[in-house]
Amino acid sequence: MGSCILLVDISPLLKDPVAFRTLIDLLEDHVRASFPKIDFIVGLDSRGFLIGTPLAQRLGIGFVPVRKKGKLPGATECISYSLEYGKAELEIQSDAVEPGQKVVVVDDLLATGGTMGAACELLKRLKAEILECLVIIELKALKGSEKLNSIPFYSLLQYD
Ligand SMILES: O=P(O)(O)OC[C@H]1O[C@H](OP(=O)(O)OP(=O)(O)O)[C@H](O)[C@@H]1O
Ligand SMILES: Nc1ncnc2[nH]cnc12
């Protein structure tokens, strides 16, 4: 029998204001308990923006977007990465983060880890200190966290 990957859709969570607030509460509690000082939340295009911006506001810190190629103005760093089928490119503005600034990287989902791994590579080029990669859902069977090597990783929910 072939394997079946769960298709993740966070739309119902976003539609429910109590569930959405509870999600941000949980993420805020986790981040506050783990890290005394963070400079920025970095969110990944596009669903990482929906989670990362309210979280940054709660924490009283700024938000930095990592976007699909061709969307950000000015000088950028760009990286190509593999998806389950095909390739894509991500960008960050070259002056988005100063060397040594502390960031937590947020997305909705870790599947193969290609997207999160590529975003971390961009942040390393800017010499950011990545405190953690944080997602709502991890698809454990795809072993995406192994792509992050030694970068700390945290998921609220895990599915096999
Ligand atoms: O771990 P990976 O295998 O890289 O997959 C996870 C990524 O895939 C989805 O984004 P998608 O590329 O579908 O873009 P979207 O958020 O703009 O829909 C999801 O929001 C993650 O960013
Ligand atoms: N299983 C999945 N569900 C939704 N979006 C995805 N992006 C990559 N893998 C995915």
From TrEMBL:
- Tell me, which GO biological process terms does this entry list? adenine salvage; AMP salvage; GMP salvage; grooming behavior; IMP salvage; purine ribonucleoside salvage
GO CC annotations, alphabetized: cytosol; nucleoplasm
Question: What catalytic activity does the UniProt entry give for this protein?
Answer: AMP + diphosphate = 5-phospho-alpha-D-ribose 1-diphosphate + adenine
**This enzyme's EC code(s):** 2.4.2.7
Places the protein is found: Cytoplasm
Q: Where are the transmembrane segments?
A: none
Q: Where is the Phosphoribosyltransferase domain?
A: 14-138
List the keywords (alphabetical): Cytoplasm, Glycosyltransferase, Purine salvage, Transferase
MF term (GO), any: adenine phosphoribosyltransferase activity
InterPro entries assigned to the protein according to its UniProt record, in alphabetical order: Ade_phspho_trans (IPR005764), PRTase-like (IPR029057), PRTase_dom (IPR000836), UPRTase/APRTase (IPR050054)
State the pathway, as annotated in the record.
Purine metabolism; AMP biosynthesis via salvage pathway; AMP from adenine: step 1/1
- Which Pfam families does the UniProt record give? Pribosyltran
Cited function? Catalyzes a salvage reaction resulting in the formation of AMP, that is energically less costly than de novo synthesis.
Q: Which PANTHER family match?
A: ADENINE PHOSPHORIBOSYLTRANSFERASE
Q: According to its UniProt record, which protein family does this protein belong to?
A: Belongs to the purine/pyrimidine phosphoribosyltransferase family.
Q: What is the name listed in the Swiss-Prot or TrEMBL entry for this protein?
A: Adenine phosphoribosyltransferase
Cite the source lineage: Eukaryota, Metazoa, Chordata, Craniata, Vertebrata
